[in-house]
Amino acid sequence: MDLEDSQSSKMLPVCSVTVGFLRMQTNWDIEHDMDRLELWVPGNTGPYAISLVKNYRAFFILNALFALTDCRVTTIRFLFASVFVNFLQYIEDERTLLIDCIAKGIIPDMENLEHVREPLEAKHFTPNTIRAAEFIGITGGPVAASVPKSPCYGSSEYYIAIPYFNGDPNTDFKVVPIDGVTEYLDVRSNVPSERVLSAWELETGGHYEPVLTTRNSLWRYRIGDVVVVKGFAPDDGLPVINYLHRRDGSLGLAYGTACTESQTDAIVSASERWIGQIIDFTVVADDRDTPVTYGYLVEFGGDIGMEAKMATQQIFEDLMENNEYHMAFWQGGAKKPTVRLVKKGTFTEYRRQKCEKTSISMGQVKVPIVLSNEMFKEWFLRRVVMEL
User: 160 φ, ψ to 5°?
Assistant: First the structure.
């Protein structure tokens, strides 16, 4: 990065949140990373070397390996719920490998580990047959039996809002100007999007898209979310918001659109009653017949409910609460949604491939609730195993 004097430059490392926060907390420079491979950061279950692993599968397996080996571990913290689910899936899928490595004190043979294998294996990992035997006696079950509520609303760069306990802490968040500045675009306004609003210009009930400026004003960008202002905290006047949906998260079908919130509520309600535990889902335009309708692609965990086919009817009834959809259905312009199940591990594989092909942090790879990209849509459709 060239500086303003045009005569000097500064290196700006691009890295994952994990290793970036570690460097910030310890004031470490990137030039001496290889000298720290054997160091064990206080409060972490694994040595610093794991933070430098870029291979998607290897990163999860190594973190799981060191976490499972340490019997003192009581809490594991994740920034994104999707990473938490993937972590549990790898533990279930690689259970035999993990137990074998714990018993023998070895690091599994995986790609792109040459630079960290020796410090990990020689300095930090020793055989532990007693710990391995403890896991042999445990019978596994479906992963992600429960995913905790998000403790905050924000991005990788900083927290935008924290739970508001004078309301419903699961849905109400108070904007806090701690790590940066949050501005807003009125999504219902006809004024050009360059007109940004400050917190004191917001109105209760208004729909806005947050615009974030990070610490030291390095980045300023739109996040593509839509939030509604529920009110203002009486103690400091800061906005209290609810997340609604992604701004571009809709399928513009002939009978209008349905936001991601309504689509999420419909599948969650149906899965709890009829399907069973779902791992993840996305919605595509099902154009196999006319009229085009909403097509749910769902990955489930464990056994499917005996009456899973009832889920389609449940989703249909929930979507009928949308006035445009309701009217179009009775006029013959809409039909019931479809639900297709994809094979186990589909969403994890999608994130792995996207992460490795684009060289971005694994926490930044997200599957949109509404998927409009035709190439990705076809990729998911090739992994369908049955239709309800």
Answer: -85, -45
Amino acid letter for position 289:
D
pLDDT tens, N- to C-terminus, the chain (388 residues): 666 666 667 677 777 777 777 787 788 888 888 888 777 777 777 788 888 888 888 889 998 998 888 888 888 877 777 788 888 888 888 989 999 999 998 888 887 787 778 777 766 778 888 888 888 866 554 443 444 445 678 776 777 888 888 888 778 899 988 778 899 999 887 666 668 899 999 999 999 999 988 877 778 888 888 889 999 999 999 999 988 777 665 565 655 555 566 777 888 888 888 887 888 899 888 988 888 888 999 998 777 777 888 888 888 888 888 777 777 778 777 788 999 999 988 998 888 888 877 777 666 677 778 887 888 899 999 999 999 8
- Paired with 280 in beta bridges are 299
CA 348, 251, 248, 207 torsion: positive or negative?
Answer: negative
Region label for 253, one of left (φ > 0), alpha (ψ between -120 and 50) or beta (otherwise)? beta
Distance separating alpha carbons of residues 219 and 209, to the nearest angstrom: 16
Encoded tokens for 327: 């009217």
